[in-house]
Amino acid sequence: MEIPRHIHLTELGRRTVNPMVFWGVITIVLSVVLFLIISASGIQSEVYLLFLVPVIAYLITMGFFVGYVTKLNRERNLLLADQIREEATKGAEFKKLNQDLETYAKQLFDKDFELTLANKRLQNLEQAKSKFVSVTTHQLRTPLSAIKWTFHMLLKGDLGPTTKDQHTFIEKGYESTQRMIAIINDLLNVDYMEADRSDYNFLPIDLPALIESVLFEFANQAESKTIKLKCIKPPTASPKVSADPIKLSMVIENLIDNAMKYTPKGGQVTVSIGDARMNSVGSSLEVIVSDTGIGIPPHERDKIFHRFFRGSNATKVQTDGTGLGLFISRDIVEKHGGAIWFESEEGQGAQFHFTIPVNRNNLSN
Amino acid sequence: MENDSSKKTILIVEDDEFLRSLTAKRLEKENYHIEVAVDGENAISVIETIHPNLILLDLLLPGKDGFEVLKKIRGTDATKAIPVIIFSNLGQKEDIEKAKALGVDDFLIKANFTLDDVVGKIKKLI
To answer: Mean pLDDT across the stretch A2-12?
Structure first.
């Protein structure tokens, strides 16, 4: 708000000659002049009084009236001056605030610009990192596929007979390749998880069917390691769960893979699917992956879901673990709103449990 | 490669020569007739002339990539019913979803499977 420049505040409140005094003097002067004129002209004093008294009375009344109006006017002017002075102060304050606001707005704009730039740079970096990871892993996986397939064909005798010693070495080569592929896959998954690009695609999923399709992938491995791989389903159809099938498959794969790795030849790995159970947040399906393997040492139970952690007894069996499988699995299960835990006695195998919430819109299926 | 009309034909679209020859060798053992294509353009022209029973399709190919080839296969009346297995080392969620949206029958990451597994997958489809 601007103060009108044409108002001069000092004039408004200025003290002038009192109009009542001024009017009184005029009345007296006029009376004296009138008296002198009349007495000089020889008019009788009665006639003079007849004129003079009403004139003086009129002048005095007018004097009072003008004085009163002037007084009101001056009081009003003083009040107005106060108001204007007050508003001028407010205006100045307002102007200051306005300037401050403009300064802050400019600072905010600059900061916003800086942050937008920084964010853009981070996004570019993130994209570059993801591209780097996916290209690198892809480039690594292609020659590894060639090595793996060659070893596998040699092992299967597809490329002609090998001696027993050759077979043993080729087997080691094949296992090493598998280990390297597992590491690359795990690293790729961790990158995927940490980049938080995993916008989960939740769908109504038939959990027993998903588990069977994962088990199918392990059939060859189980056969070659003479491990009995079993699936126990509930007698009645399970309700569909709400899950991202690719992510959930990863959890099941990790748990079965672990069970197979830590179970010696001739052992047993069982995947059982429980009935839907109610808990505080709703209904869930529970899956248990149990094995007859080496189990988990009691003092390492707290670390089992930690990143890169591998049991101290892991080296007792030939394994290709990176210590990332359970770390990734826990993240996935928790993002589904489920829980993951285990029970184990060293030397007596382990049972890994996880729960996945039932799809609320599909309870009848 | 001789063409025996009683054999089922599988087209392998793969730009890596060694992977291509290993895959061909393993599948020939299963008594399939094998055709090969080394890039996307090549694949499309082979598919149009021979109508294979199944296509094993890599994604990263010189020129037209596997997604474009798949789109072309599914968009052509004469070829849209041919089973297609993506066989690639790409395997991020986005790739899998994109391939599924384009109507792929299966998606296998090369490094995660042996050629025996691939034979199993093929036998499920044809």
So the answer is: 47
- Stretch 105-144 of chain A: residues touching chain B, C-beta under 8 Å: 134, 137-138, 141-142, 144
Q: Which residue of A has its CA nearest to B29?
A: A158
A335 contact residues in B (CB cutoff 8 A): none
Structure tokens at B15: 């730009």
Instruction: Write out pLDDT tens, residues A51-104.
Output: 778 877 888 888 888 888 888 998 999 999 999 999 999 999 999 999 999 999
Inter-chain contact A145–B110, Cβ cutoff 8 Å? yes
pLDDT reported for residue B4: 54
As a whole number of angstroms, the distance between CA B13 and CA B62 comes to 11
pLDDT in tens for each of the 126 residues of chain B? Answer: 445 567 899 999 999 999 999 999 999 999 999 999 999 999 999 999 999 999 999 998 888 899 999 999 999 999 999 999 999 988 877 788 899 999 999 999 999 899 999 999 999 999
- Rounded CA separation B82/A210 (Å): 25
Question: Which residue type does A63 have?
Answer: G
Cα-Cα-Cα-Cα dihedral sign, residues A150, A152, A153, A154: positive
A330-338, Cβ contacts within 8 angstroms, sequence gap of 24 or more:
A330/A305, A331/A193, A332/A193, A332/A247, A332/A248, A332/A250, A332/A251, A333/A251, A335/A198, A335/A200, A335/A247, A336/A200, A336/A202, A336/A242, A336/A243, A336/A244, A336/A247, A336/A248, A337/A281, A338/A284
**Which residue(s) pair with B29 in the sheet?**
none
Instruction: Determine whether A72 is exposed, middle or buried from the number of CB atoms within 10 Å of its CB (0-12, 13-18, 19+).
Output: exposed
What residues of B are in contact with residue A156 (Cβ under 8 Å)? 116
Q: Is the pLDDT of residue A338 over 50?
A: yes
pLDDT tens digits for range B31-63: 999 999 999 999 999 999 999 999 999 998 888
Domains in chain B and their CATH numbers?
A: 9-125 (3.40.50.2300)
One-letter amino acid identity for A146? A
Q: Domains in chain A, ordered, with CATH?
A: 1-197 (no CATH), 201-362 (3.30.565.10)
Q: Which residues in A lie closer than 8 A to residue B24 (C-beta atoms)?
A: none
Calculated CA dihedral for residues B84, B90, B92, B94, nearest 10 degrees: -60
Instruction: Answer for the pair B86, B108: CB distance below 8 angstroms, yes or no.
Output: yes
CB A250 within 8 A of CB A213: no
Residue with tokens 């080691």: A172
What size, in residues, is chain B? Answer: 126
> Three-state secondary structure along A150-204?
HHHHHHCCCCCCCCHHHHHHHHHHHHHHHHHHHHHHHHHHHHHHHCCCCCCCCEE
> Which residue has tokens 């690009």?
A197
Q: Which residue has the tokens 């002075």?
A: A85
